[in-house]
Write a structure and sequence with these properties.
The structure is a single chain. The chain is an alpha/beta fold. 55% of the residues lie in helices and 14% in strands. It has 12 helices and 7 strands. A 5-stranded mixed β-sheet has the order 1-7-6-2-5. Strand 6 and strand 7 form a beta hairpin. Helix 1 crosses helix 3, helix 1 crosses helix 4 and helix 5 runs parallel beside helix 6. The longest helix has 41 residues. The termini are far apart.
């Protein structure tokens, strides 16, 4: 019985999933933003979005001959059957079995200006982290990496490692395509890593924008927003009201300003403690007339925190200037609130202050 089920399971499960994706996909109202720019590129294209949002992309590209890479696992057999019936072209392999062969085959088709859809954090995670394989294929093939953010409403979020999103029938969905990212053939390991982090950050940014476009003011605040607003104590409601009315570009820029303002105050908080310790050690040394352990190190720590504080203040000032020049109407309405760092410092340094 087990052997029979193992043999027929891929056909039964793939048949059910194929029909579910096909029928749900027909009812989805998908808004594809900047997709025409992607289509206009003459080189190979690797569209990169997180594994947990792949359902919408699968429904959107069914029947278009887009290339995908599917693992050689048992679950991969089911996926292979589904994607074939949905009209995708398939390369078998993953970070486990068949990885090298899949990369070589992927580079070959990308050199022919193909479009490939990849979940760079799959198939095992960690979620939201770009793995190295996609960077290798882009570098060797000259293909453009296209970051994408996806959201839908209403939807079901599974309790899986990637919080897999399944849109409900007749849901509204949005796919936001970002600017192409290229990996130069001559790039060294450090440069490739810098581009990888750039791509990863851009996918996250587009994900936030997609959530905002779908959910608007009813969106759930992400961990970044919660972390920022938690620093402003009783002023949170004022800041929330200010942020919720903004268009997306201003919203992102405003969060950047608030993050850098928090960094200034937290650096000052650390500086107060470091300088106070250095002053105590100095007084002990003067009183005893002897060297006090840690005094030299405390002087070095003071110099270091002063440098950090100056850098934080410059970064905050630059972000505030950029925000004010790009969105003057929102800068004028910016609440005059100050964050409250965990260490609750006084508002100014005393003695050898920063």
């Amino acid at each position: 019985m087990k052997e029979w089920w193992r043999r027929v399971r891929p056909n039964i499960v793939s048949g059910f999933m194929y029909n579910f994706v096909r029928l749900t996909g027909r009812t989805l109202r998908v808004q594809a933003i900047n997709y025409e720019k992607v289509q206009a590129l003459e080189c190979g294209k690797i569209v990169c979005g997180w594994h947990g949002k792949s359902f919408v992309a699968t429904a959107f590209w069914r029947g278009h001959g887009v290339w995908v890479i599917i693992s050689q696992s048992r679950d991969g057999e089911i996926q292979n059957a589904i994607f074939k019936r949905l009209g995708f072209q398939i390369i078998r392999g993953s970070t486990g079995r068949g990885g090298v062969r899949a990369a070589v085959e992927g580079i070959r088709v990308l050199k022919g200006a193909a479009t490939m859809a990849i979940t760079p954090d799959g198939p095992r995670g960690p979620s939201g982290v770009v793995q190295g394989g996609v960077m290798l294929m882009a570098q060797k093939s000259g293909a453009a990496l296209i970051p994408i953010g996806i959201s839908s409403r209403p939807r079901f979020l599974a309790r899986s490692w990637d919080r897999y999103m399944i849109p409900m029938p007749f849901a509204k969905a949005v796919m936001i395509f970002g600017e192409p990212v290229y990996v130069p053939k001559e790039a060294n390991e450090e440069e490739v890593e810098e581009i990888r982090l750039q791509l990863e950050a851009e996918i996250h940014r587009l994900e936030r924008e997609a959530e905002w476009r779908i959910h608007g003011n009813t969106r759930r605040m992400g961990s970044r927003e919660k972390r920022i607003l938690s620093k402003y104590g009783s002023h949170v409601s004022v800041l929330e009201a200010w942020l919720e009315r903004m268009p997306w570009g201003a919203y992102e820029a405003a969060l950047d300003v608030l993050e850098k303002q928090i960094s200034v105050f937290e650096t000052r908080a650390s500086g107060i403690q470091i300088i106070s310790k250095a002053n105590r050690l100095k007084m002990m040394a003067e009183h005893s007339g002897q060297d006090v352990p840690g005094l030299i190190d405390s002087y070095a720590a003071v110099d270091e925190i002063k440098t950090e504080a100056k850098a934080a203040e410059v970064a905050y000032r630059d972000a505030l200037i950029d925000f004010s020049s790009s969105y003057p109407e929102w800068a004028d309405l910016m609440p005059k609130n100050e964050p409250r760092p965990d260490k609750n410092p006084s508002t100014a340094m005393r003695g050898e202050g920063l």
